């Protein structure tokens, strides 16, 4: 309860700051528009205004403040503009419509899920290899870290082209980029998790002279579950970013990334912001869903009180 | 076909070498920890070379490592200028501003429980915003030069840093806090003498995560507008000119810089948190 | 027969001819099943075709010639665009009236293979591009939109007559506030949207046959689009998967595009080619191409297709 | 045995924790008076409220009923006056500080001068027999040495009352014996009032002038045993009949309050 | 007391750990013979090699010198033959398994049939007095109950030897007394050979037929004390003179080997 109040307060504060920030951010554009519409603006020349501070302009032309929240192509759209855009593009559009955010969200989501599945699978396999083979631990793990310093967006177009050349198109290239981003947290978390049983627990199995496979299935794997879920939550958010990145170079075809790009391309800031929020909402939902699964699984395993 | 068999052979050789190293008597020495990944990397590079040459993969799809190597040495001045623009000016300044402001915010969040309850969930939500989306907005706001890149980096590193620091500041055990209580210590005394040092491992964890994020952020942001230099600029224009060797040379720079940056922070971490069990073993 | 066409940019009226041909069944009449792949900001069509991801691609000639020098033998088989739509759009109040006024200014330029005409022009004007000075300009890598101009981060930006210029206008700027320099007028026009294939494929009879039918149907599409701009714009809108394009913008774009395709029957005019090559060769210290390309175009397809 | 005015006095002390599983009655009607210079041990099964009672004295927990006074003040005032040193079960030294810096911690907080800090550190290090280890980090010391350092830390600012919550619980018997001996010596020298929680019957009997036996659910005092042992106590005293008698009485008291719910 | 052939026999056993700070001589020239049915306690200060010796018997550690035989085999063969059950200091139950599933763990690994598993679980649960708790998860049980479950786990596959490394170290004295009683009863019933590490002198004396006193740096055996106590031992026996005598002897032995380096 206390938490809800706190969150609401913080959100309210952010909204207030946001509205306030709209004024200096948009004032120049608004004044130009007002001037064209015939209003008296101080100073009258656009060139003078360019060199003036935003605050000074606002003070000079306080009549223009409401207009900073209603611009068509603002530098910073006001919260209600974003909210209205989101409302119109989700609830009021058919979900099959190309103008529906839900449609684009779905396109991104499907690539995210596929990439997440691939990335998680690979990540777990790699982690199992690293934990069980010293050779892999020594030689592969450092490169897994280095791989994260490569800017994926630089590789994304090339991945897409290379896959094109072997005839793979559509969702797969996006999924692969999204897998690239999600595999690392999973590897790190899973390696940690598979190594989490302490020496005593491992020794216990030795006293039973258990095989390696038995050790894996009966001890390491169950013990790694909390770590797995923690990294899955990071991984799924990264997956989504990957899917969006993958949508950029393929151009404005479909998906939230395409929506962002198109918004940016046509200077539709409101559209960018609403796509951004849609992405964040999607990420929050995915993480929340995983949290729910985590709780049920761990509860059934008896690991959550 | 011969290069392909060669590639398979090289792979087996590299793996065999590493297996020997890993099961050998020096498996735990620093030497092997350094050598093994090196051998693995070299193996991959040789195989790459052989496959590209063997299958005659087009230069404009995937250049061979030797070509990239040549391009790297030929273009050092360009690469250096790009490095300065993107890493030093963009990434580094953003990293510093972002980390420091996150640290200050974390202190505020830690001081007022209300903020922790309210701000952290919102922060997690904002952190989920895909950076690629914020980049064009920030370029619009902060201009084409490195300032907007730094702004993107600030946004990227802020929340991981905040979340880690806040977690770290809560790391001191109940017993350690009670101890401070028995001394009737003030908030700031217990902050400086207990909570901040206890949080260091977490803070450094955040700092390490942020190194790679900073690099990626600065490069990505250049895709959305830049002056005519910078690593992101070079990568995107070089793809357009089909100078794939240049693209890979920049990727090499990014990987080198990222690894060095990460290594540097890890080294400082070792010096500062020498007392932590994870650093002692 | 299946044909994959890689576009240079996102789905818009710039490519109306191909969409019309597909939608109106012109391709089908020729027995072709055409897949149109939209491009994007980081997709190099030349790279796609090199990787075998497409049979034919829409590309600008400077980029194609540059790729050719890089060892990717692209050949122009048709040229639906007669004139260039690229221009530099500047604020008049910044005090720019003639090309010479560009000195000491900040200019937004597209890169990714589209910077070549600009570089040639600057070197012809004797302006260096290393930064602001009495004899130089500061060049910005412009993003995908016209913000740099609107936000006054640049004095001039690159625009296309059919697209970005109108975005500036749509943002509330009046044409009187702007000064434009068309590359066409400055004598540095280079050929834009042409159709390119890999040279090696041209010796394959089955392939050339397919291309002949493709070019024939495409040109039919273009001419139809020129005559029915509104319908063409509608077709483009239907094919736009993002849902971001507006009808008004596409109709206007179609009108402008029609001006550029007018006068081309699809066959490349060697004079245009030579002018393009000369412009590019004159690219100053860092020319786009260094030697006269040969075999970079052919009438083989258009001759067969259009007769 | 030095006895004097009651330094700690609890009357009808009550404490109920509100938890998600309902309230827990951790202390019920606790009455106890501790005089100056006494060594009082608290013993009882897990969960009987030993720690809770000690924490109430230290003002780390607020009773929900009854009165509690420390040096005639409320516990919180006493805390602000730095009336007591508290030693926890684990040494709880800060790993990033050397032993001497750890001992200086309360002195820094209380604003002692650097010279005074130095002097006091040396004094208490000697008291707990750790001279020569001031530059070491905690993890470089054995468990017993760490625990001695933590006692030194509690002694450094020279409070009259020393509260110790199972300070030797994690140590082995031999080390424990040794520290018990030293603690007794220290107590004899300094005349502090000591409250000491333990699980070990021999330890309680060996150390205390008064043994408080507690019982859980709800936490309460079931027996208070005054020890007839002399102040001078060699380790051998543990094999004496008096000792065994007291120990027996404590064990009986414990068993009575315990039931069979192991 | 049932004695028989030596089940465990160590001759000149030596073990040196190579560490970064140089070698640690954890066991030096250890000679010991344990007969069938004996209850042997190992006692000694921290670091004297008690755990290491037990681990050698269990083939969790490989001696660097001397010979060690278990049931006439090498320790590793004995391990493969599942000759012993091992109980660690902490219960170490898997939190994701219920009590009965935890006890089944070794049975699953050793490939017992489901019916047999069920039967054995019921038997050992009864033995350790935990019937009715099979469906609970470990954290729903008290520490003492968890430790009993971990003993049940070690008993489930009915090995002849039971090795226990400070199994009750983390429990409070009362619970410990209770478990000691139960362990003795169990031992009497099953005639197992038990090796038992402890820090507590009373515990060692109360339980054992033989007490092995060890001393550190290098780890070695300094004394082996045979207990004259009868097999039948009520808890009260601890107040008897015989008991106190043995305890005294153990304490002397310990002190001798200990020095002053706490
Ligand atoms: N902060 C708390 N919140 C809720 N319940 C608590 C809290 N602290 C202690 N308790 C409960 O109060 C009771 C007494 O706890 P206390 O720690 O005083 O016992 P103790 O005698 O010190 O036991 P132990 O020997 O295990 O240390 C226990 O039932 C415990 O669970
Ligand atoms: N794996 C190991 N590597 C290096 N040294 C070790 C290892 N295990 C034990 N030692 C060292 O060997 C010596 C004996 O250790 P051991 O654990 O057997 O002592 P112990 O008698 O069980 O002590 P405690 O009562 O603290 O459990 C110690 O000095 C310890 O530090
Ligand atoms: Mg307690
Ligand atoms: Mg041990």
TrEMBL record, chain A:
User: Mainly localized where?
Assistant: membrane
According to the UniProt record, one GO cellular component term is: plasma membrane
A Pfam cross-reference name:
BPD_transp_1
Which residues constitute the signal peptide according to the record? none
Membrane found in the keyword field = yes
Q: Which residues cross the membrane?
A: 106-131, 143-165, 171-191, 227-252, 272-293
Known SUPFAM superfamilies for this protein?
A: MetI-like
Report keywords, A-Z.
Cell membrane, Membrane, Transmembrane, Transmembrane helix, Transport
- State the annotated membrane topology for this chain: Multi-pass membrane protein
Superkingdom in the source lineage: Bacteria
Q: Could you tell me where this protein is found in the cell?
A: Cell membrane
Q: Which InterPro entries match?
A: MetI-like, MetI-like_sf
Q: Which family does it belong to?
A: Belongs to the binding-protein-dependent transport system permease family.
Q: What is this protein called?
A: NitT/TauT family transport system permease protein
TrEMBL record, chain B:
CDD domains the record matches:
TM_PBP2 (cd06261)
Is Oxidoreductase one of the keywords UniProt gives this record? no
Q: Does the keyword Oxidoreductase apply?
A: no
Name where it mostly resides. membrane
Kindly list the GO CC terms recorded for this protein: plasma membrane
Give the residue spans that cross the bilayer.
32-48, 92-110, 122-144, 150-169, 202-226, 246-268
Q: How does it sit in the membrane?
A: Multi-pass membrane protein
GO biological process terms, semicolon-separated? transmembrane transport
Q: Give the record's keywords alphabetically.
A: Cell membrane, Membrane, Transmembrane, Transmembrane helix, Transport
Q: Which InterPro entries match?
A: MetI-like, MetI-like_sf
Positions the record marks as coiled coil are: none
Q: Where in the cell is it found?
A: Cell membrane
- The ABC transmembrane type-1 domain sits at 98-272
Q: Which PANTHER family would you find in this protein's record?
A: ABC TRANSPORTER PERMEASE PROTEIN HI_0355-RELATED, ALKANE SULFONATE ABC TRANSPORTER-RELATED, MEMBRANE SUBUNIT
Q: What is this protein called?
A: NitT/TauT family transport system permease protein
Q: What is the lineage of its organism?
A: Bacteria, Pseudomonadati, Pseudomonadota, Alphaproteobacteria, Rhodobacterales
From TrEMBL, chains D, E:
Task: Indicate whether Magnesium appears among the record's keywords.
Answer: no
Q: Tell me if Transport is a UniProt keyword of this record.
A: yes
State the UniProt keywords alphabetically.
Answer: ATP-binding, Nucleotide-binding, Transport
Annotated Pfam families? ABC_tran
Q: Extract the SMART domains matched here.
A: AAA
* Record GO terms (molecular function): ATP binding; ATP hydrolysis activity
- ABC transporter domain residues are 10-237
The entry assigns this protein to a family as follows: Belongs to the ABC transporter superfamily.
Classification via PANTHER family: ABC TRANSPORTER ATP-BINDING PROTEIN, TAURINE IMPORT ATP-BINDING PROTEIN-RELATED
Q: Give the protein name, as stated in the record.
A: NitT/TauT family transport system ATP-binding protein
* Gene source species: Ruegeria halocynthiae
């Amino acid at each position: 309860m206390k938490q809800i109040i706190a969150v609401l307060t913080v959100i309210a504060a952010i909204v207030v700051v946001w509205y306030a920030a709209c004024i200096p951010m948009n004032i120049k554009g608004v004044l130009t528009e007002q001037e064209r519409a015939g209003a008296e603006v101080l100073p009258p020349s656009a060139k003078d205004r360019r060199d003036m501070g935003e605050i000074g302009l606002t003070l000079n032309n306080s009549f223009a403040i409401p207009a900073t929240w209603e611009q068509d192509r603002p530098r910073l759209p006001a919260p209600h503009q974003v909210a209205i855009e989101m409302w119109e593009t989700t609830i009021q559009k058919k979900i099959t419509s190309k103008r529906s955010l839900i449609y684009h969200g779905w396109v991104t989501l499907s690539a995210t899920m596929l990439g997440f599945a691939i990335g998680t699978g690979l990540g777990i396999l790699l982690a199992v290899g690293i934990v069980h083979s010293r050779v892999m631990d020594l030689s592969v793990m450092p490169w897994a870290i280095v791989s994260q310093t490569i800017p994926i967006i630089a590789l994304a177009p090339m991945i897409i082209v290379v896959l094109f050349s072997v005839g793979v198109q559509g969702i797969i290239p996006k999924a692969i980029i999204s897998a690239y981003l999600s595999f690392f947290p999973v590897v790190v978390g899973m390696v940690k998790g598979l190594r989490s049983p302490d020496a005593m627990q491992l020794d216990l199995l030795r006293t039973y002279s258990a095989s390696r496979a038995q050790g894996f299935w009966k001890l390491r794997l169950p013990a790694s579950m909390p770590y797995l879920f923690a990294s899955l939550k990071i991984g799924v958010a990264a997956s989504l970013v990957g899917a969006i990145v993958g949508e950029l170079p393929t151009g404005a075809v479909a998906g939230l990334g395409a929506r962002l790009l198109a918004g940016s391309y046509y200077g539709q800031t409101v559209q960018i912001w609403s796509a951004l929020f849609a992405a964040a909402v999607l990420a929050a939902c995915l993480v929340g869903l995983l949290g729910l699964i985590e709780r049920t699984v761990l509860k059934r395993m008896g690991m959550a009180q | 076909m011969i290069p392909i068999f060669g590639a398979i052979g090289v792979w087996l050789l590299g793996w065999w070498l590493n297996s020997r190293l890993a099961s050998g008597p020096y498996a735990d020495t620093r030497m092997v920890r350094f050598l093994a990944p090196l051998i693995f990397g070299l193996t991959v590079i040789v195989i790459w070379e052989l496959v590209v040459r063997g299958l005659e993969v087009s230069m404009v799809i995937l250049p061979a490592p030797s070509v990239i190597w040549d391009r790297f040495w030929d273009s050092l001045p360009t690469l250096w200028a790009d490095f300065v623009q993107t890493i030093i000016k963009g990434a580094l300044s953003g990293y510093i501003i972002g980390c420091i402001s996150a640290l200050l915010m974390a202190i505020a969040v830690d001081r007022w429980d209300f903020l922790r309850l309210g701000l952290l969930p919102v922060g997690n939500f904002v952190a989920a915003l895909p950076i690629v989306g914020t980049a064009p907005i920030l370029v619009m706001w902060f201009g084409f030069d490195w300032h907007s890149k730094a702004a993107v980096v600030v946004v990227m590193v802020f929340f991981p840093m905040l979340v880690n620091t806040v977690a770290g500041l809560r790391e001191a055990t109940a017993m350690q806090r009670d101890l401070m209580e028995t001394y009737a210590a003030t908030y700031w005394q217990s902050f400086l003498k207990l909570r901040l040092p206890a949080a260091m491992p977490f803070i450094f964890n955040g700092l390490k995560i942020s190194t790679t994020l900073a690099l990626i952020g600065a490069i990505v942001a250049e895709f959305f507008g830049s002056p005519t230099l910078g690593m992101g600029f070079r990568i995107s224009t070089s793809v357009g000119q089909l100078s794939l060797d240049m693209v890979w040379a920049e990727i090499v720079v990014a990987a080198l810089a990222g690894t060095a940056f990460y290594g540097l922070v890890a080294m400082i971490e070792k010096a500062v948190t020498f007392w932590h069990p994870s650093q002692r073993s | 027969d299946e044909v994959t066409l890689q576009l240079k940019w996102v789905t818009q009226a710039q490519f109306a001819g191909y969409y019309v041909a597909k939608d109106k069944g012109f391709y089908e009449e020729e027995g072709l099943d055409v897949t149109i792949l939209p491009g994007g900001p980081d997709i190099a069509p030349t790279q796609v075709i090199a990787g075998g991801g497409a049979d034919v691609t829409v590309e600008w000639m400077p980029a194609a010639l540059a790729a050719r020098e890089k060892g990717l033998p692209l050949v122009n088989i048709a040229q639906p665009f007669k004139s260039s739509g690229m221009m530099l759009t500047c604020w008049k109040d910044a005090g720019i009236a003639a090309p010479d006024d560009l000195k000491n200014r900040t200019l937004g330029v597209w890169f990714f293979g589209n910077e070549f005409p600009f570089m040639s022009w600057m070197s012809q004007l004797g302006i260096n591009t290393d930064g602001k000075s009495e004899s130089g300009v500061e060049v910005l890598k412009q993003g995908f939109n016209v913000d740099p101009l609107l936000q006054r981060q640049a004095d001039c930006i690159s625009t296309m007559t059919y697209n970005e210029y109108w975005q500036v206008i749509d943002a509330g700027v009046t044409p009187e506030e702007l000064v434009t320099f068309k590359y066409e007028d400055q004598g540095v026009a280079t050929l834009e949207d042409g159709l390119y294939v890999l040279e090696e494929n041209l010796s394959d009879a089955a392939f050339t046959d397919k291309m002949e039918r493709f070019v024939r149907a495409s040109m039919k599409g273009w001419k139809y689009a020129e005559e029915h701009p509104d319908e063409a714009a509608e077709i483009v809108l239907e094919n736009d998967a993002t849902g971001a394009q507006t009808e008004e913008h596409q109709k206007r774009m179609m009108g402008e595009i029609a001006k550029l395709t007018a006068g081309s029957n699809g066959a490349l005019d060697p004079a245009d080619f030579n002018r393009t090559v000369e412009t590019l060769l004159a690219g100053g210290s860092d020319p786009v191409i260094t030697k006269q390309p040969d075999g970079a175009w052919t009438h083989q397809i258009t001759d067969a297709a259009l007769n | 045995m030095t006895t004097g005015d009651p330094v700690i006095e609890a009357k009808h002390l009550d404490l109920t924790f509100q938890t998600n599983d309902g309230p827990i009655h951790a202390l019920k009607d606790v009455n106890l008076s501790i005089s100056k210079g006494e060594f009082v041990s608290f013993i009882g099964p897990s969960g009987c409220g030993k720690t809770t009672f000690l924490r109430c004295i230290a003002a780390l927990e607020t009773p929900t009923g009854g009165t509690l006074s420390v040096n005639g003040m409320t516990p919180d005032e006493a805390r602000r006056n730095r009336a007591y040193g508290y030693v926890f079960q684990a040494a709880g030294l800060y790993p990033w500080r050397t032993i001497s810096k750890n001992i200086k911690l309360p002195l820094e907080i209380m604003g002692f001068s650097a010279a005074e800090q130095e002097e006091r550190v040396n004094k208490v290090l000697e008291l707990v027999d750790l001279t020569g280890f001031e530059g070491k980090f905690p993890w470089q010391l054995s468990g017993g040495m760490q625990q001695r350092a933590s006692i030194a830390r509690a002694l450094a600012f020279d409070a009259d009352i020393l509260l110790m919550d199972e300070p030797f619980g994690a140590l082995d018997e031999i080390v424990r014996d040794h520290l018990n001996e030293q603690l007794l010596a220290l107590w004899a020298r300094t005349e502090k009032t000591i409250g000491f929680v333990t699980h070990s019957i021999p330890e309680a009997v060996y150390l205390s002038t008064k043994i408080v036996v507690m019982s859980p659910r709800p936490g309460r005092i079931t027996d208070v045993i005054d020890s007839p042992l002399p102040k001078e106590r060699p380790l051998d005293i543990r094999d004496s009949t008096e000792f065994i008698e007291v120990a027996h009485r404590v064990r009986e008291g414990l068993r009575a309050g315990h039931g069979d719910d192991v």
